[in-house]
Specification:
Elements (H helix, E strand, L loop, with lengths): L17 E13 L4 E7 L2 E7 L5 H7 L7 E10 L14 E12 L15 H6 L1 H4 L3 H23 L3 E2 L17 E3 L7 E3 L5 H9 L4 E9 L11 E10 L3 H20 L9 E3 H8 L13 E2 L10 H8 L3 E7 L7 H13 L7 E5 L2 E3 L8 H11 L6 E7 L1 H18 L11 E5 L4 E4 L4 E4 L12 H6 L9 E6 L2 E8 L4 H10 L4 H15 L6 E7 H9 L29 H6 L10
The structure holds one RNA strand of 77 nucleotides.
Length: about 600
RNA sequence: GGAGCCUUAGCUCAAUUGGUUAGAGCGCCGCCCUGUCACGGCGGAGGUUGCGGGUUCGACCCCCGUAGGCUCCGCCA
């Protein structure tokens, strides 16, 4: 047996016991005679004292110890001398008086300090095995374990079966770019890594398993972000004979249990609900951050007969005029206005009109076009007061909502409205549109995915071809402006699914080659079913209070999808390629 | 594919308007030190300022290019 306790276990009650600890040397304070070391394992720190007059051999050996050496120390637990207790340590009232010291392994000098935060993430990722020794990373991974374990227990108690689905699966045309895996046995053919276990979980429902879940690894070959990795995890859930209401309460219960276990937080349920239209109209986003107001206000009626051509023109063309009131932001700098204007233009607006309310005066390039009546209405509608900054959007509805929604978030960031805020604003966004028209491809695409069920009352709209008005039985769960999950009730009838593919421009032949198995399954008595997928990494990020997904994954990829520690991806031997019938075309240098 | 910021000792950062030998703290190495916990004291090593080119009497500093990192847009059903 290597040890009797961990390094966070010993307390005054253990004084007098003979114990053995193992761990890494966190720090050494060598006084020439007496020597102190802090021994670290994943649970914490314990001070070990070497006294030459009591155990000369161990003390002599302790002089040669260096940071990160791996040690085994035996001795007697003692109270610290009065006045030398360390209240910063959980074990600070006691120390281990070393009798025996075994050096299990010497360590080279680490390339960066283990006991403090460093900024160089490149280096941290290259030496990830050292980075993981840092208490913050250990804490994040422990919390991740707690979340996953709690979710498994909760879903098990609710009657859900954890079932694995294939990693080697089939490429599908919709959605993200696939990672491909060449087949050796069928040269020239490829598996795809799953973007999500979507079809498999629906087929499990056809298979009569009724309630399924999985902590599913998903793969998407798209560019990375601070909150996006090419491989990530979902808590994937699907059930037969289930309504959206059932799913909402299941997921609310799951979040309650997880937040209780991970952070001791008692979440209020049920979560508020908001339709997609309302979210867009009030917050300019389908994942609204409701921790602060600054809501979008519609001004169509105010400017219906305006002399200001930009607003009147937008309204006449079927568009909208909206504004947000950035309370207390009249002190905005010229540079910030330029930044916000550039942001507005980047997302399709022609410009960004504004009013600064300073010293009782409305400072603005456009206010001269407004009548007294219009100014009065504005004042009331937006609650305008001294020190406010009003920002306008006038264009198509989608453009105005999107632009003002992004500006709202940027202004909140500049004003630090949510800095240090502990609030947890969960909400469901419901009644998403089923379809969205892509100008680029000149076709209709599924907003959620092609298996999403239209709202029953909107089926006639689908038949009449009024695609933009068809709503889906789809829902997202949003926390503090972050989409942490989403799902839908699925189509379970062959005919309706075929009709959806038709609308999406998938030919009958394509339907058969790509989705034939699913359509066939639906013809053999598929039960009504639906589900949801929760973004595990993002949930852990919010629980850990980090903005960086790499902080909650043991071995993540960097910005360019590379693992700096193992140097992957890497070149492979030409024999491997030959077996796979693959020829690499190298870019000219 | 595009944009912004960044790159100086092992780490975190300085370096005056372009000026002569590029500094500090931590870490590291050596010596000393018997109650520290950011231990302390003395001494020491450590740099092609990412790389390449240019301007200049002179470049860490200015210009061009390039590589790498991070963040964002596009992309992510």
């Amino acid at each position: 047996m290597y040890r009797t306790h961990d390094c966070n276990a010993l307390r005054p009650a253990d004084i007098g016991k003979t114990v053995t600890l193992c761990g890494w040397l966190n720090s050494r304070r060598d006084h020439g005679g007496v020597i102190f070391i802090d021994l670290r394992d994943r649970e914490g720190l314990t001070q070990v004292v070497f006294r030459p007059e009591e155990h000369a051999e161990a003390a002599a050996a302790a002089h040669g110890l260096r940071g990160e050496d791996v040690l085994q120390v035996s001795g007697v637990v003692a109270a610290r001398l009065p006045g030398t207790e360390n209240p910063k340590l959980a074990t600070g009232a006691i120390e281990l008086v070393a009798g025996d010291l075994t050096i299990l392994n010497k360590a080279d000098v680490p390339p960066f300090p283990i006991d403090e935060e460093i900024a160089n993430e490149d280096l941290r990722l290259t030496y990830r095995f050292l980075d993981l020794r840092r208490p913050r990373m250990a804490r994040n991974l422990k919390l991740r374990h707690r979340v996953v374990k709690t979710a498994r227990d909760f879903l098990d108690e609710a009657g859900y079966l954890e079932i694995e689905t294939p990693i080697l699966s089939k490429s599908t045309p919709e959605g993200a770019r696939d990672f491909l895996v060449p087949s050796r046995l069928a040269p020239g053919l490829f598996y795809a890594l799953p973007q999500a276990p979507q079809q498999y979980k629906q087929l499990l429902m056809v298979g009569g398993l009724e309630k399924y879940f999985q902590i599913a690894k998903c793969f998407r070959d798209e560019d990375l972000r601070a909150d996006r990795q090419p491989e990530f995890s979902q808590i994937d859930i699907e059930a037969a004979f289930i309504t959206p209401e059932d799913i909402f309460s299941l997921i609310e219960g799951l979040f309650r249990r997880v937040f209780q276990a991970a952070r001791g937080i008692d979440l209020p349920t049920p979560f508020p609900r908001m339709t997609y239209d309302e979210a867009m109209n009030r917050y300019g986003s389908d994942k609204p951050d409701t921790r602060f107001a600054m809501e979008l206000r519609d001004l169509g009626d105010v400017f219906a007969a305006s002399d200001f051509k930009v607003f009147k023109g937008a309204l006449a063309g079927g568009g909208v005029v909206k504004a947000i009131n950035a309370k207390g932001f009249a002190g905005v700098t010229t540079g910030q206005i330029e930044e916000l204007t550039a942001m507005a233009k980047l997302h399709g607006a022609k410009g960004l009109a504004f009013i600064k309310v300073e010293k009782g005066e409305w400072k603005s390039p456009i206010v001269k076009f407004f009548s007294e009546q219009e100014k009065q209405s504005l004042r009331e509608r937006l609650g305008i007061e001294e020190g406010d900054l009003i920002l306008f959007g006038a264009d198509k509805w989608e453009t105005v909502c999107n632009v003002l929604g992004r500006i709202r978030l940027r202004v909140a960031e500049i004003q630090r409205l949510t800095a240090g805020m502990e609030a947890l604003h969960f909400l469901w966004v419901v009644d998403f549109p089923l379809l969205a028209f892509s100008e680029e491809e000149n076709k209709w695409n599924a907003v959620h995915h092609p298996f999403t069920r239209p709202l029953a009352e909107d089926l006639p709209l689908l038949e009449r071809g009024e695609f933009s008005r068809v709503r889906a039985q789809a829902y997202d769960v949003v926390l503090n402006g972050v989409e942490v999950g989403g799902g839908s009730i699925r189509i379970h009838e062959q005919a309706l699914q075929a009709r959806m593919f038709e609308v999406l421009g998938v030919t009958r032949e394509q339907q058969q080659t790509m989705f034939g198995h699913l359509l066939r399954a639906f013809s053999f008595g598929a039960p009504p079913h639906g589900g949801v997928a929760l973004g595990l990494d993002r949930i852990i990020m919010l629980l850990c209070g980090t903005e960086n997904i790499r902080d909650v994954i043991a071995f993540p990829k960097n910005n360019r999808g590379m693992d700096l520690m193992s140097q992957s991806p890497s070149e492979v031997d030409f024999k491997q390629l030959r077996e796979l019938a693959i020829q690499v075309v190298k870019k000219n240098p």
